[in-house]
Amino acid sequence: MDSSSVGVMDDAFRQAFSDGALSLLVDMSRVEYISSGGLRSFLLGFKEIKKKEGKMVLCALSPSVSKVFKLSGFNTIFDIVPGREDALVKLRLGSP
Amino acid sequence: MKDHAWYDVPGAPGVRIFPFIRKPDVVCCNSYIIKAPGHIMVIDPGADQTQMEEILRMLRDLSGDGMERVTFFLTHCHVDHCYALMKGIGTSMMPDGVIMLAQAEGAKALREYDEDVTQARVMGWDFPPVELQVELRSLLTGDMPDEGKVVQSTQMQEMGTAEGMKIGYQRIPLGEGLEMVAYHTPGHSPDSVCYRLGRLMFTGDLLFATDPGIMGSVGWDRDAMESSIRNASWLLEHEGIELCLPGHGYCVETAKARTMLERMLKEVRNIGAIKTKDAERIRFTSNYALDMLEEANENFSVIAGRLYYLAYHLEDLEEGSEARKYLDMLEHDRIDEMLTSFNRFVEEFHAGRKLQLQVTMKAVQTMNSINAIFKGSDLEAVMDRSLISGTSRLLKDFMNAVKGIELDVVHEERDLRSLVQEIVEDQTARPEDDIMDCLDDPERYASALARRIAHIPVFDDIELHLEGDGATTMLDPKRFQDSLSGLFLDLAGSDVKKIVLRLDGTSLEIGTDVDLSSTVGEKKVRALSRRFELAGAKLSVIDGAHWHCRIECDRP
User: Can you list the alpha helix ranges (DSSP code H) found in A19-83?
Assistant: First the structure.
């Protein structure tokens, strides 16, 4: 996810919010790389859903994306779980 | 002067010029068509098929009754300046009796199809492409007077320029009192030539001959380069030149060209021996560029991520203006765009549409621009020292590797245990927390708050054990510590919960509890090994499944 593709993520968040979504599951299994623009897109999406008192859970981070999240502190902002099922459970039960 | 338009040549009445100005690239140069009464000339036909076919169509249209002489002038024999002609592109459109002029050594390299001097080997282009269809004649031949007679009665002469300096030159009559003057300006290549026509100077690759990635190609000569720079500067001043028309990129006004030459003179005087950019060296720098891109991608994502993290928490604390200040510290969007563009370029390379040399040149351009942004930022106050210095070193080492100069390595006798201990303490330490001392000073309070938030304790959940005794080693302590910090960050970014560092004399073994083959894979190990090697140590991975490596340092 770099500066050329981050617009797709921005649009997906915009669409989800305009559809009234309050629970977001982001499956990252096909994201091999995340640039600063990608991180910003996630943070903006997270702030928006937090404002709406909704929830966002990320799952299936590749090792390289997980590394960027850990080293930049993003793992302490986002709810990150290993797989889709874990994410669905988290969204149903409500994250702590 | 702009691309694809006719202009009068200043100082040469009745002569017009039509430039083909390209975005700078290593696969083809700019070309210039010149129309004088009874004579059509082309400076450097280039290597691009479309450009060559357009040139030949224009020659056919301009030649009218076919009575005009047609001459191709080469500024030097590198294939990006002449391959289209050598390849015989558009032979059927080529007028009869065409002559190609090149300085004697370049003409010899072309006649003998020398793959190294012409750069055909580093470009990976066929050589010899075809039997040459035009008559190749030599210019500026001091010791071969017969061959040097391009036109009756002209051959190389010498003139004094700056104090104690001389330059070889040759006048080439064009008819009706007009002349082209060729000046020998070796350095970039032995056969480099500048041509003067009226008040225009065609400079070939002279003005960027000391750029990283360009300097040091086969035939590079530092001393000759220094003389040529001084000679060219003198010529621009004393021969009434208005505009320089380079082999790549936009035209340069004389004042700016002289400033460029002054900068080049300083560079060339400061540079020592450099490695020749032969095919093997190009392969090395291209692989280096690919490895470095992965590291740069990751480092700049982490750096930007940390600034976003800091700004996010500051905004939460209603410190919006402070948050903005940290977000503005680094133009990460610009860096992101540049890295994206480089990533796309690398995809083209892997698809076989770009050459190794182009990858290196793209890396140079990208990293130069990123470095200018990164150097000007003030991140140390809110970012780990190791992340900043490691990233700076990454950029600087790559540029020096491309230049082919020795890297700044300073080996010293140091105790291995204390070097490792310092890094372990540095990684696990918390920043000095003076927030309680500055509650009544809003500015200091905001900075202290930012420092506290910015500290990301990546090692808090990792057990770090340092065991054994180290001996005195001989290494570059700063490079060694930066390399070790970088390795620690790689480990901290994975699922490692325990790291054991075991010292035994001059060796350090690092063991973990997890499989790191996906995060510390082949490329990462290659990059780490390169860094430790420069520090004077050798890294080898003993076990990838339960990641375990050994770092052997030199004894004094």
Answer: 36-51, 63-72
Cα B251 off chain centre by? 21
Q: Which residues pair with B373 in a beta bridge?
A: none
Q: In this structure, what token pair is assigned to residue B182? A: 């060729």
Query: Is B552 strand, coil or helix?
Result: strand
Residues of chain B positioned with their CB less than 8 A from the CB of A67: 298, 490, 493-494, 519
Quick one: CA torsion of B432, B478, B399, A4, rounded to 10 degrees? -40
Q: How far is CA B246 from CA A75, B23, B24, B171, B352, in A?
A: 52, 12, 10, 20, 29
b (16+ CB within 10 A) / e for B312-340? bbbeeeebeebbebbbebbbbeebbbbbb
Dump pLDDT digits (tens) for A50-67: 999 999 999 999 999 999
**What are the residues whose beta carbons fall under 8 Å from the beta carbon of B404, sequence distance 6 or more?**
B215, B216, B274, B275, B276, B277, B281
Q: Is A64 exposed, middle or buried (0-12, 13-18, 19+ CB in 10 A)?
A: buried
Query: Residue B456: its chain A contacts at CB < 8 A?
Result: 71-73
What is the tens place of the pLDDT at every residue in B286-314?
A: 888 888 888 899 999 999 999 999 999 99
pTM score > 0.95 for this model?
no
Instruction: Give the residue range(s) of CATH 3.30.565.10 domains in chain B.
Output: 409-556
Determine the Cα–Cα distance for residues B485 and B245; give it in Å rounded to an integer: 48
Q: B7-270: which CATH number, 3.30.1320.10, 3.60.15.10, 1.10.1040.10, 3.40.50.20?
A: 3.60.15.10
CA-nearest residue to B492 within chain A is A71
Domain boundaries for CATH 3.60.15.10 within chain B: 7-270
ipTM above 0.90, yes or no: yes
Q: Which two tokens stand for residue B430?
A: 């918390």
B277-297 burial by CB neighbour count: b if 16+ within 10 A, else e? bbbebbebbbebbbbbbbbbb
Question: Is A47 in Cβ contact with B305 (below 8 Å)?
Answer: no
Determine the Cα–Cα distance for residues B386 and B391; give it in Å rounded to an integer: 8
Fold of the domain built from segment(s) B409-556: Heat Shock Protein 90 (3.30.565)
Residue B386 CA, chain-centre distance (Å), reads 26
Contact A35 B297 (CB under 8 A): yes
CA B429/CA B445 separation, integer angstroms: 21
Three-class secondary structure of residue B345 per DSSP: helix
Q: Does B462 touch chain A (CB under 8 A)?
A: no
Note the pLDDT of residue B116: 93
The pLDDT tens digits for B101-160 are 999 899 889 988 899 999 999 998 987 777 766 777 877 775 544 444 444 457 788 899
Per DSSP, the three-state class of B184 is strand
Query: How many angstroms away from the CA of B511 is the closest CA of chain A?
Result: 19
How many C-beta atoms lie closer than 10 Å to residue B390's C-beta? 19
In order of B125, B214, B281, B309, B390, the CA distances from B218 in angstroms are 16, 10, 11, 49, 32
d(CA B77, CA B465): 61
Taking each continuous run of H as one helix and of E as one strand, the counts in chain B are: 16, 21
Interface test with B, best of A5, A8, A39, A75 (most B CBs within 10 A): A39
Hey, is B191 helix, strand or coil? Answer: coil
- Residue owning tokens 């930022």: B377
Q: Inform me whether the C-beta atom of residue B336 falls under 8 Å from chain A C-beta atoms.
A: yes
